Amino acid sequence: MPLFKQFRVFVLVLILLGVSVEALLTRNHLQDWSSTLNVAIFPINGDGSAESRSFINSLKEADFAPIEQYFGEQAAQYGLAQTRPIRIYLGSEIQKHPPEKPAKAGFFSSIYWSLAMRYWVRRNTPSIHVRPDIRIFALYFDPAKYKRLPDSTGLAKGQIGMAYLFADRGLNGSNLLVTTHEMLHTLGATDKYGLQTNQPIFPVGYAEPYKSPRYPQEFAEIMAGRVPMSETEANIPESVQKTMIGFVTAREIRWIK
Ligand SMILES: [Zn+2]
Hints:
single chain; alpha/beta; five-stranded mixed β-sheet
């Protein structure tokens, strides 16, 4: 291997090591749940449209309150001592767009993107009156022009989430679902659906795996994202109230030890 190439690899390894140690330390703090975690949401006009602009202008912190309530209710189910696990703050709008996720994520392109994303966050996060533990960048799109949005992402390294959402109050339920799912990723929760089929994986992706009869289920496991209706069908729930944080997810975010 030529010397400059060796040097490049060495630098990359150093950066990754630093990132991993930092992530581990933060994760420990986030997962002890002794204090309320501050979640800051920063809106971005995803498609540059007038519709998204007026939607962002109408956004209020209270629009995200159902997520706070949801975390509180779910935590109570697991007997967590912390009665207010998260508090959401609405930050100011960001004009610059985050680096785009590669369409086909290979090993190196994923690492590169996650580092680029962290660098972008460091440079572009507006100041806010609290120290955010989790940062969600909410990109809004006009549903009249965009029927499908890119996949949202939550990074457990750096506690950064990118949520692709619709600039439409009527779709608030689905927006809050996506935001909550990505928020949980930043806390270490993993997906619980089949990547080929989109079907919830049994039993980890079921809110009530031991329900009898098993189908139809009434709720979705939040990290599986769909309510299983049969072995091969599942419906997208209309709101977070139709989902639960399942046992395995609760263990991943350390609500149970
Ligand atoms: Zn996911």
